[in-house]
Amino acid sequence: MNLCVQNGGTTGHFDKQTCYRLIKEAGFSSIDLNIDTCFNQNVLKDHMNEGKTPYEKGVEGIKAFYHEDLEAIKDNGLYIYQCHAPFPAYRPDAKEGYLDYCIEAYKTALDFCKEVGCGRMVVHGVSLARTNFKDTQKDIDAINEHLYTSLIEKAKETGVLVLLENLFTGYDGSIREGHCTNEYEAVAYIDHLNELAGCECFGICVDTGHLNLLGKNQYKYITTLGKRIKAFHIHDNDGMRDLHLAPYTGTVNWEDFCNGVRDAGYDGDLSFETFRQYTPARYVDNRVLAPWLNLVAAVGKVFIEKIEG
């Protein structure tokens, strides 16, 4: 079991080589690569196919955009464990065709993952937002079905797993359950998609912070999903805001988390999505990036001991 960290919010403090060197020196082995940062949904919801993203240039376009990251990852002896695709795939205010545009982008992203040796890509499902007066839950269910089933053939072709994620909707006092938040519904839906595919093309990336926002039991959720868990987004919060902090700086029950990971039989990388913990390094003093990375990695090593011990 190795430690993984998200590049988003982490590698913008120094030059790429320095940032990835600090990640390696802290004790991380792999990267959760955000391949959503070059995808401007605010533009694309109104203007389709106008050269607004590197995705329209295919795999080579994505590789060119992340060239410095890919080189620094390789030079520092790291590997890409998982990628995070652009989101959201659906907006009720978008022009017709936005969802299918995103689906084609995801197919290109799966090709990219294969080329860079990454076996997992997180694709957010669609949740019924409190402010969406256009759609019913039945409409949202149909959108998710179209989204994920459209990726089956490309997932088979590339061998890259498509990972759903447990989500929430709303903020600060209006938070409610989103796609895959209910553990039993998540199990049924992932199994349904894999049955349609005829093989294992889908799994889940469990987000600890999202579970905490909704008061979900980490142990129950993780053990219920079991072998369907192929990745994690590990971070902490205060139970009210999606803060993306280091473990033990919020209210997540980390004993339940570690016990759940152990009993679920998960043996992949532990990926930390703690990007807001490093914000002071960007806006105050770059010298605090390394200590925070070291702290998060040290916590990760404790987690591994608890899980494997």
From the spread of the alpha carbons, the general shape counts as globular
Unreliable stretches: none
Profile the largest sheet: 8 strands, parallel
Count of DSSP strands: 10
General description of the model:
The chain is of the alpha/beta class and 309 residues long. It is 44% helix and 13% strand. It has helices at residues 16-26, 41-44, 58-65, 67-75, 98-115, 137-149, 152-158, 183-197, 208-213, 218-225, 254-264, 279-283, 289-308; strands at residues 3-6, 30-34, 79-84, 120-122, 161-165, 168-169, 176-177, 202-207, 229-233, 270-272.
Can you tag this structure with a few keywords?
309 residues; alpha/beta; two-stranded antiparallel sheet; eight-stranded parallel sheet
Structure, briefly:
This protein has helices at residues 16-26, 41-44, 58-65, 67-75, 98-115, 137-149, 152-158, 183-197, 208-213, 218-225, 254-264, 279-283, 289-308, and strands spanning 3-6, 30-34, 79-84, 120-122, 161-165, 168-169, 176-177, 202-207, 229-233, 270-272. By secondary structure, the protein is α/β, with parallel strands linked by helices. The termini are close together.
